[in-house]
Amino acid sequence: MSIPAPTPGPAIPVVERHQLQNRQGNAQSSSTQITIPQTAPAGGIQMTQPPQTAALSFYKIAPSQPITFGWNLTSLSITPTQLTVSAFCSANGNTYPVGPTDGVIAGDATQVVWDLYSYQQAHPTQPLIIASYTLQIQDAHGLTALPAPGRFAPFTGATFALYSPEPYTPLASWSCAGCSSATLNTGSSPLLISIIATFLAFVLGGWGVLRRT
């Protein structure tokens, strides 16, 4: 006996509340009912910058070099009121807010610009380090929210790395940290110079004799 396939459950009515203002400027509440089928996919984002298929992106912490993260919103029946964007570093366990507004952006935003150098200057007690990071984007339900039809699902699917250029060092101030103090200095060892000169004279003189024979 064949077992009939299960039929999809009923659609889920969702009440979405909005804050409006009347002509006198007073806040008023209004409600809009949205019906979401149970078979609807969970909403979320698809990264466009950097692309999810690209290799690990490296960004430099330097003046006038902000970075941009971009994405498309997908399968959303309910748009979040706001999103929170952050960067998690597993090397030190810190989470850093991304963007100029402490990581909080509009729910329908599709990009955020992060000035790494300005952040570094403004947060000396928790600076960015040279390491890889995971981009995190979440709504009010947090990173642990389970996917639900039509609702925003938290995103943690993009990684990137940060690096910092070394400061310029004049040649006169440069020293070889890996060089041994026992290494001979040809500029201050006349004995070594005379030994090398004698050896070269012997080799060249012997070659001249061989040529004449």
Protein topology:
Blueprint: E1 12-21, E2 27-36, E3 44-49, E4 57-60, E5 67-74, E6 82-89, E7 94-97, E8 104-106, E9 111-114, H1 116-122, E10 131-138, E11 155-163, H2 190-212
Parallel strand pairs: 4-11
Antiparallel strand pairs: 1-2, 3-5, 5-9, 6-7, 6-8, 6-10, 10-11
Notable traits:
single chain, 213 residues, alpha+beta, six-stranded mixed beta sheet, three-stranded antiparallel beta sheet, elongated
Structure description:
The chain is of the alpha+beta class. The protein is 14% helix and 35% strand. The protein is built from 2 helices and 11 strands. It has helices spanning 116-122, 190-212; strands spanning 12-21, 27-36, 44-49, 57-60, 67-74, 82-89, 94-97, 104-106, 111-114, 131-138, 155-163. The strands form 3 sheets. Strands 4, 6, 7, 8, 10 and 11 form a 6-stranded mixed β-sheet that branches. The radius of gyration is 32 Å and the shape is elongated. Residues 15-23 have low confidence and may be disordered.
SS content category: alpha+beta
Please state the CA-atom Rg, rounded to the nearest Å.
32 Å
Reported for the largest beta sheet, the result is: 6 strands, mixed
> How many helical elements?
2
- Number of beta-strand segments: 11
Query: H/E element string?
Result: EEEEEEEEEHEEH
* Mean pLDDT across all amino acids: 80
Distance between the termini: 107 Å
- Low-confidence residue ranges: 15-23
Helical amount: 10-25%
- The geometry reads as elongated
